[in-house]
Design goal:
The structure holds 2 protein chains of 2 kinds. Chain A is of the alpha/beta class. Chain A is built from 12 helices and 9 strands. The chains are: A alpha/beta, B alpha+beta. Chains A and B meet through helix 1, helix 4, helix 6 and helix 9 of A and strand 3, helix 1, helix 7, strand 9 and strand 14 of B.
Chain lengths: 322, 487
């Protein structure tokens, strides 16, 4: 029997998703035996032209990580979509936009002005900024265009499945690979992680009181969280109620609250909206003064609530000024 | 101008860093450019965020060296809130950091840059990878490499919460302490790392230093630049990865400057070119004179060899012996770009010895691991030595601790100008009369692979892993040869 063809590809990402695959350790050798990896820029010869000459649908599955930030990334993603039976959005950036998606609070020009002109170490009296086409002493050089807006993978191509996390943990990666190779596929558009919220699996759940109420938020750097108690119970902002489980509660076990890298739970589109409504229902303020105390204590609401998911949210980006 | 040679990672037709080499009518190299074709804009989108989230935001710059960004950011918060962590917390941070430096340096030597030497500079591309390394050094050794890296990464997971993007850093401390049982486990691994680092240095000696051809490559002029060097040092001017002052030596090895991280703006400026998204840092008090080396040019280098040059020794005994041996062979300062590989292993041994010292110290089990901020925040600077060089984080905030300005000078970026120069020099020395063989191109690539360039930091690709496609154009712009390969 011929081995199924598999591709791994990256767009605007940090390399952490590639490290996650390398961290499979000896398991990766099993994968290599079972499949024919046709594209894995990080570890194997790139065969871009080879991909172009393939028949449509010839690749069994493409795992694509990273958000879409440039035209080139969009082009190769579309090519891989055409050649693949299945496309899996791998990791938070492909799935939700991820941390680089916070750039959707600004646009390309604002980013350039900061990075190349206003930062304190920059010495640039002539206001030079990188250009897509430039002639340097007779040498023609090009750079790809930088988009105004970060896009998720499914805003560019049809995505079959999602593998969440920043980066996805090894057990979920192996689980997804196994179910694809054994052809035990879940419903289209499924996320390869449990349909539960992080709160449902949180080890601190058993000590949680029947009814939670928050009178004031505390910033994590100003308090010593009790490692047995629910973060929200202690007034510490935690995205647990709005976030899918499956991460192994890694941050919680290091005594740090959740920031939502697994994205929203099933049936929820907008993770930020979900956490804010959860918080509103836990808020306890009987007077106007108490209300003010509570909401004044909640800082950078947009950034905190949409830490990983701004491009995938209903907001998508900050409205562009015309 | 005759031909144009483009070396770009194929992912980067599509993106992550490319080399353009222009040949003259005789087929000799006229000019070379190293371009970074991507940007994500962390400095901009960090604005408005809460300062205490920065150690969780900035590691996403790089999934290969997230621990470096995490620690630089955490130290920036210490400075922002003027809060000193308890001794146990400082030691645990440095313990995590030493485990990280060790596993990252080992990754580079065996998986990324090392294959050039272990398998051979002109070996076929199919062999010049970890599999070729295993074929040369044996499967048992290969598995040993994988296992020791995993054990170190497990320490980071245990103490930092996660190895890809740790979360434990807070201003004035860390989120989680170490139990006595954990300390003993860590100590066992630390002991193994010392042994392993010695083994790696021995392998380097046997395979590289005892091979006259390789040694000639290392000391040869093609891979040489006389520049300034920068690195973090302790109070005795010895290499330190986690803390200290920044020391700079000139191309003759004489001390040029020594300053506190907080004063970095008095010493470093960044130049912008229209043809790359990466900026070019230089020494402010020498000035930007273009892509040239020498005492009159502000170009400086960072990362393993630069750190060894900028210091006067190592803080642990075994690493000190290796340090002396390196400079006895090459002279000090060593300007040989390929000696970065050697220096990296000396540093791996130091990281291992330091890890062991810290794991032996029972104070790390002290439960007092946090001090709390008491003042209004305003501005903070934090510096660590990342595997790929000096890493600067600098935040300004409003009085509620929301970021109003964030400046990052990332390790590889400090080497940006030197990388460009090294590529051009190697290309000029190796490509003659239009002859561009696969082996020669690999030797051009070796000029920048030695820096272990982290384009995840600078452009988000994985360091040294980039497969390259080389296209050679004739004078009419028609492709007459294409070579595709891994580096």
């Amino acid at each position: 029997m011929r081995k199924p063809k598999v591709a791994f590809y990256w767009n605007a990402s940090c390399g952490g998703c590639e490290e996650a695959v390398v961290d499979l350790g000896l398991d990766i050798l099993k994968v290599v035996e079972a499949v024919d990896i046709v594209l894995w820029p990080v570890a194997l010869d790139f065969k871009y032209k080879h991909i172009e000459t393939m028949k449509d649908g010839e690749i069994a599955v493409s795992f694509i990580n990273g958000a879409i930030r440039t035209q080139e990334q969009e082009n190769i993603t579309k090519l891989l979509r055409r050649k693949s039976k299945l496309v899996v959005a791998f990791g938070s950036c492909a799935h939700l936009g991820g941390i680089p998606g916070l750039a959707n609070f600004w646009d390309a020009e604002q980013i350039f002005n900061t990075v190349y002109k206003s930062l304190p170490s920059v010495q640039n009296p002539e206001g030079v900024i990188p250009k897509t086409n430039v002639n340097v002493d007779g040498y023609e050089l090009t750079l790809p265009e930088f988009y105004d807006t970060v896009k998720t993978l499914d805003q560019v191509v049809d995505v079959d499945y999602y593998l969440p996390g920043c980066a996805p943990p090894p057990d979920l990666i192996m689980g997804a690979l196994t179910s694809i190779l054994e052809n035990k596929l879940p419903e289209k558009c499924s996320v390869f992680a449990p349909d539960k919220s992080l709160c449902d699996t949180c080890p601190r759940g058993e000590n949680k009181p029947q009814k939670l109420s928050i009178k004031k938020f505390q910033r994590i750097h100003m308090v010593q969280p009790d490692p047995r108690k629910c973060f929200l119970e202690q007034g510490i902002f935690c995205l647990g109620p709005a976030t899918r489980s499956g991460c192994g509660e890694r941050c919680i076990n290091a005594n740090m609250p959740c920031r939502g890298c697994f994205g929203p739970i099933k049936g929820t589109v907008d993770q930020g909206d979900k956490i804010l409504s959860a918080i509103a229902s836990l808020a306890e303020a009987r007077t106007e003064q108490e209300e003010k105390t509570l909401f004044d204590s909640l800082e950078d609401v947009a950034g905190q609530s949409y830490m990983y998911s701004l491009p995938s949210s209903l907001l998508h980006r900050k409205r562009k000024e015309v | 101008m005759g031909k144009k040679v483009t070396i770009e990672p194929v992912t980067r037709l599509e993106g992550h860093g490319k080399i353009e080499i222009f040949l003259d009518n005789f087929g000799d190299v006229e000019k070379a450019f190293f371009q970074v074709p991507e940007l994500r804009g962390f400095e901009k989108f960090s604005t408005g965020r809460l300062a205490e989230e920065m150690p969780r935001i900035t590691p996403k710059i790089c999934g290969v060296c997230p621990t470096a960004h995490h620690m630089a950011s955490t130290k920036t918060l210490d400075d922002l809130y003027k809060v000193v962590p308890p001794t146990a917390a400082k030691k645990i941070r440095e313990l995590i950091y030493s485990a990280f430096m060790f596993e990252d340096h080992i990754l580079h030597f065996f998986f990324l840059g090392g294959p050039d030497f272990i398998v051979g500079p002109q070996a076929s591309p199919e062999l010049r990878n970890i599999l070729g390394v295993i074929a040369t050094v044996g499967l048992r050794t290969g598995k040993k490499v994988i296992r020791i890296r995993k054990k170190c990464r497990d320490i980071i997971t245990l103490l930092g919460g996660r190895v890809i993007h740790p979360v434990c850093g807070l201003p004035g401390g860390i989120s989680r302490g170490v139990s006595e049982k954990e300390r003993k486990e860590i100590l066992k691994t630390a002991e193994e790392t010392v042994e392993f680092a010695q083994f790696a240095l021995k392998a380097f000696e046997d395979i590289v230093l005892k091979n006259e051809e390789y040694l000639n490559l290392i000391v040869g002029d093609i891979y040489k630049h006389k520049t300034y060097y920068m690195g973090l040092v302790d109070d005795k001017n010895r290499v330190n990865f986690y803390d200290g002052d920044i020391r700079v030596v000139d191309p003759s090895g004489k001390k040029f400057a020594k300053f506190k991280p907080r004063d970095y703006l008095d010493h470093i400026e960044e130049h912008v070119e229209p043809w790359s998204y990466m900026k070019f840092p230089y020494l402010k008090n020498v000035g930007w004179k273009g892509f040239v080396d020498g005492k009159k040019s502000g170009v400086f280098r960072v990362a393993p060899l630069a750190r060894l040059n900028a210091a006067t020794g190592m803080a642990t005994p075994l690493a000190q012996e290796e340090y002396e041996k390196l400079f006895d062979t090459l002279g000090k300062p060593a300007h040989n770009t390929l000696a970065y590989h050697w220096a990296r292993l000396v540093e791996a041994l130091y990281a291992a010895e330091r890890m062991k010292e810290l794991a032996e110290d029972t104070e790390i089990t002290d439960p007092h691991i946090r001090n709390f901020p008491t003042i209004e925040p305003k501005e903070g600077v934090g510096v660590v030595e990342a595997p790929r060089g000096t890493l600067f984080h600098h935040y300004k905030t409003d009085k509620r601790g929301k970021i109003t300005e964030c400046n990052l000078i990332v390790a590889t970026v400090n080497n940006a100008a030197a990388i460009c120069m090294s590529i051009e020099k190697a290309a000029k020395g190796l490509i003659k009369k239009g002859n561009v063989s696969d082996g020669l191109l690999n030797m051009v690539e070796m000029a920048f692979r030695a820096y272990d360039p982290c384009f995840a930091c600078a452009t988000h690709s994985l360091p040294g892993h980039m497969p390259l496609q080389v296209r050679i154009y004739d004078s009419l712009g028609k492709i007459h040869k294409t070579v595709t390969r891994n580096i």
